[in-house]
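Render this sequence as a predicted structure.
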Amino acid sequence: MTQQHCIIIGAPLDSGKSNKGCLMGPDAYRTAGLAEALRDLGHTVVDKGNVAPAPFVAKEHPKLVALEETIGWTESLADVSEAAMKEGLPIFLGGDHALSLGTVLGTLRHAQSVNRPQFVLWLDAHTDFHTPKTTDSGNLHGTPLGYVTGRPDFDGFPVVEHPLPQDNLAIIGLRSVDPAERAAMQETTVTHVDMRQIDESGIATPLAAFLDKVAAANGLLHVSLDVDFLDPAVAPAVGTTVPGGATVREGHLVMEMLHDSGLMTSLDLVELNPFLDDRGRTAVLMVDLCASAFGRRVFDRPTRTF
């Protein structure tokens, strides 16, 4: 197994939506033993603590939630992400999914600097392909993929100088897509895999095809794992529960395939809301999934007692 230098970065971002609680996520991952799990697998780990947003002045908006704060987070996380990519494999502990506005932007900047293509694997119940103009809820955690792929109307956000090509994005686990996002997505070449397709043909086939594409291009791969990718019966600590999500087995399969590929170069763990958890079970599961992505095999997995 290839040893990685893992850089843990907390992002207690809670501005991407109106329901609060994700700011407690980074400490929950730490309490659940993320660093220890990675060290047990032979990796080196440094925890750089928590990031703060760039200075901002909050304003009232008729629709958008905490726009200026989210822009501040995007600015700071993009800088931290770009710097961390030069040092090792960053693992960003969220925080809601608006953190990916910054983390993916940072990886895009780094990819450009090393002249390699950036790819993104988005494990989520939602496409997160909105823009500030198209979102009905005003929650900016539904906009990261719209932003990094170069959709318009992100006024005030850092300019995405080299947007993520649509062909370099795969969204797996979809089961809650509103009409505006569906219409926009159907006009793209983004790989999008919903739970029906997974039920019919399994999760390994589309994931393997996407990983082959990354490998063929010598690409960098950012993985963004949303708690709501998983079924809420096994991962209740999320404010956007959608029944019918991935099973524990499917989650571990995805992570083990990522490890086998050797392609992952950065990782988000997002939307964990410990306030909604059941004795830490979701945080523990997310740490276990992360461990699978870094080499833990099925025979090594500990038995959990809740």
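Summary. The domain at 5-300 is CATH 3.40.800.10 (Arginase; Chain A). The chain has a mean pLDDT of 96.
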